[in-house]
Amino acid sequence: MDFLKSLGHPEEVLNLLLFKVRGCNGLVPKTDKNNTSNTLRTCYRYLDQTSRSFAAVIRALDGELRDAVCIFYLVLRALDTLEDSSSIQHHIKAPLLQSFHTHLYQPLWNYTESCEKDRQVLEDFSTISLEFRKLSSVYRDIITDICWRMGEGMAEMLESKLTTMDDWERYCHYVAGLVGIGLSRLFAASGQEEEVIREDTELANSMGLFLQKTNIIRDYLEDQQEGREFWPKEAWGKYAKTLAEFTHRECMPAAVSCLNELVTNAMQHIPDVFTYLSRLRNPDVFTFCAIPQVMAIATLAACYNNPQVFCGVVKIRKGLAVTLMMEANSMRAVKDIMARQTLEIAEAIKPEDPSASETHHVVKKVLRLTRTEDHGGLMVKTRWSLCASPFSVSCALIMAVVSWHYLATLQDMLAW
Ligand code: IN0
After folding, report:
1. Does ligand 1 have an atom closer than 6 angstroms to the CB of 72?
2. Which of 133, 159, 185 is the last residue of a domain?
3. Which of 11-15, 38-42, 54-58, 87-91 has the lowest mean pLDDT?
4. Ligand 1 contact via 211 beta carbon (within 6 Å)
């Protein structure tokens, strides 16, 4: 099915084939199996369970930083799962979120009342906290501080609705901007990145905001179905009386206008993303940071002006996701991807859209930063389209691999 969806994109077919042969992303896992305790192995298993592809990117980090980021990710998953647990009443949840950071130092603490998908990280929190306590104190202090600030922020937001755009920024800062700030401190503490990465907290915040705003935009329907609302009223209030109205067929044009406004808002973070990424020196840290960002722009391009956001799940093709993961290993490559996806958004702008001029403005800004203003340039087309139709190249690639497999099997049988 993944191959069928990518038939019009031969480079995706090729990358899907490589992905199947070489495994996740061809990234080199640097885990030292002999030196790994059972509990740390369990932590990496939890990481695989929560996010297989992202787990591979974390495993490719080097030295102490790899384990610190793995534990940071799992601890944050646990905190996020607590926040998401709709079965916990607010007056119980608020103190739980606020005291969460203290449980990192309580060997027996766990939480068994959550019904969420990722509840395992709460139920077996003692395994994660055990590995947390083995980290160097610099990493522990950073993780504890971020959990404390995030727990306070989440508790504060429990009772307040997301009314203004400032509320939206503040909420995204607590749940994602702080992650960027924490990661930047971990990178600098490991010595793998320079101090400026840690010091410029605005840029680190923007890295998180770009990801979180994209998630919120994409997950409109899923959140509605689960009784959650993360779109700010200052935006949707211009188009509807309630946010839930956007699921009604007759409200589709208004819903799409609001969607386009939020996509345009999220894109404002891209210049900061470029500056942050361009300051990274370590290639593994760069890939780790760049992959989620290019996935986010591809998700925004898939969502922009797309009514599907209000009636189904908008996901990027697996072939595209694999291609982005393989490509995003240099600033030039990231800028090319950003330009390609931004051009897709530009092509979908309708002149009658209320945010059209703002969208054009941010598109121009992003393209200027990628130094590719030329809309008709070769960059948007692929090499393949110069010699044959994308469909026929994809079919030829699949045929070649199937034949190769067939011949290899035949050769094995004859050798018997
Ligand atoms: C992340 C971020 C993340 C990675 C790298 C650098 C970052 C800098 C600033 C902020 C966040 C950064 O990336 C992950 C990506 C991820 O988990 N992808 C999932 C897809 C999904 O939908 O869940 C996958 O399966 O591939 C991310 O989304 N978040 C995250 C959480 C912890 C850490 Cl340590 C890093 C979550 C969030 C809320 C966006 C910060």
Report:
1. yes
2. 159
3. 11-15
4. yes
